[in-house]
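We emphasize that the prediction below concerns an isolated chain of 687 residues; any contacts that depend on oligomerization or on bound cofactors are therefore not represented. The input was used exactly as deposited, without trimming of termini.
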Amino acid sequence: MRWDNLSAPPDEGTPDEAAPAAPPLPLALPGAVARTFDTPEFAGMTFYEVRAKSIINRVPGQSRVPFEWTVNPYRGCSHACTYCVAGDTPILMADGRTRPISELTVGDRIYGTERRGAYRHYVVTTVRDTWSTVKRAHRITLADGTTLVASGDHRFLTERGWKHVTGGMRGGGRRPHLTTRNRLLGTGRFAVAPKRSTDYRRGYLHALVRDAGRQFPLDDADAADLRRRFRLATTEPEVLERAGRFLADAGVTVEWINGGVARRSTTARTAEPAAVESVAALARPPDEPTDDWWLGFLAGMFDTAGSCRRGVFRIGVAGDGSRRRTAAALDRFSFRWALDEPGNRNAARQVRLTGGLPERLRFFHLTDPAVTRKRSIEGTALKCAARLQVTAVEDLGLELPLWDITTGTGDFIANGVVSHNCFARNTHTYLDLDAGADFDRKVIVKVNAGELVRRELAAPRWRGAHVAMGTNVDCYQRAEGRYRLMPPILAALRDFANPFSILTKGTLLLRDLPLLRQAAEVTRVGLSYSVGFVDETLWRLAEPGTPSPRRRLDAVRRLTDAGFPVGVLMAPVLPGLSDDEESIDATVAAIAASGAADLTALPLHLRPGAREWYARWLAREFPHLVPRYRQLYQAGAYAPDAYQREVTARVRMAARRHGLHRGEVGDNRRLPDASPAAPAAEQLSLL
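Result of the prediction step, given as a token string:
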């Protein structure tokens, strides 16, 4: 990396919340102003502010990228603060479901706690801020098997108050910290939500559907219409919406007519009588139900005949068959229950779940009923007998991407235990806090980037060539939220009607949508997102510091709605992990659904530095793939041409199936029409 075009800015005072720092300066940056910021999202970070001498750089001739000029306002990528918990830690949402902490956004409604009298109680609060960093990680193990990964600075609520994960008994590191004598407060680990498999859908419909396939006299004038009807044992809108979706997935379209007897059911009508037979077949119980079928059945039973009021969970069972099947399902998943006889002969018997809040939450998370109002725990006191004794606190010996949030109550429920906000900020700055996974701690900030772009575009020698941004370091990384270098850059490109393109993984790009619209009126603007795969398990392992594929594709959809043809770089495609036909088809389908204009696939390539980092990660997570990678990349950074052609062919076929034009290599960067054909595009950093 060459720094001879950089110099230190003049001393113009200290910006708000910033102070000159005094760490050793990089040898190539003599005189740069090093700054640190007294806000949690940049704790431990050093920003080297420089005044660059030039900003529009020519790409070396030997590079394989399909453009000649770039602008990079940053070198390095910013990450921040001292906290928190692993990105896949499930957080209890206000609707009773869970979501990984890394996917939370400002405004999300979740559960926290507040003290009322002698006890804390669960209350609904909102997420006020989110951020992420890389810190040394520790694993906390509890007696019930719950595990949490957090930094040593994170705090959890114990029976003796808030305690850090690690600390000392004396000296500067002295602070309350977890020991094996402590017990955390909460319900214990959350169950994993069910897969919406075919069996789950069938079990759910079995609990709901009534009168499908009912016979009527042939001479009945209304028989033809009646044969097209059946009932669902509910009037709940959320249940009807789910049932309609499940039926549509099976190829059955229905319309809702009206409420049934005592307004406790809803009549459905199909397009033709034969479709009712399909509904009856879907709702028919199999000879040997699977776990998924039983989970769907329990969800449907709760939605149609269940209640949860004042901490008492019940499901009404009208007949012996319903009672036996409900009991068998609960026993299958080791739920504790009791059968309550009715007070009068006309009432149905009730199956009552025992075990308190931990068992109720386990039922809700394991089965996932549709009706959210029945899942509320607001106002419930924070007291339970869950086995949350700390059995071990282990230093994992490595740094991991970790996340934290700020909430209205100052806490949240992380995998069943009460977790503290590490910081509560007085102000909120709109930042792209899910920036990519290049976790360098020293970031070079070219503070005069905007004025340099304007000056160089005005130079007589500049011929208005296409400028690519975000191809080396993401120009919409987190630090951009503070330094705001991109708006003046975009304004200059707009004023000179200079064509440009942006490739990013961040959502902060949406902040500059008004400027992008203005530029698009006078020149060619290309916008692209990098989405290599949509499998969330693989995303959390391979790209834990980036916005989720879902959030990136949501941004694609918003930009498309704003009138931009947005390209997607399907990169990197990972050999052995995301290159099979099923993974490629799922990714291409999601990209097509986002409204992307075109798609370019790019198999993983491994330059020196990234190669060594990726090799260590692969050996740790997928050791069985190491021999294959050695073979694929034995000749250098790129996979063999035959392998690249094979991946490209799979993507092309998937794109055709989903009606998506697959762009030729590089066209997602919107190069001018006169540009010659270009070789393979570059991928953003994977890790």
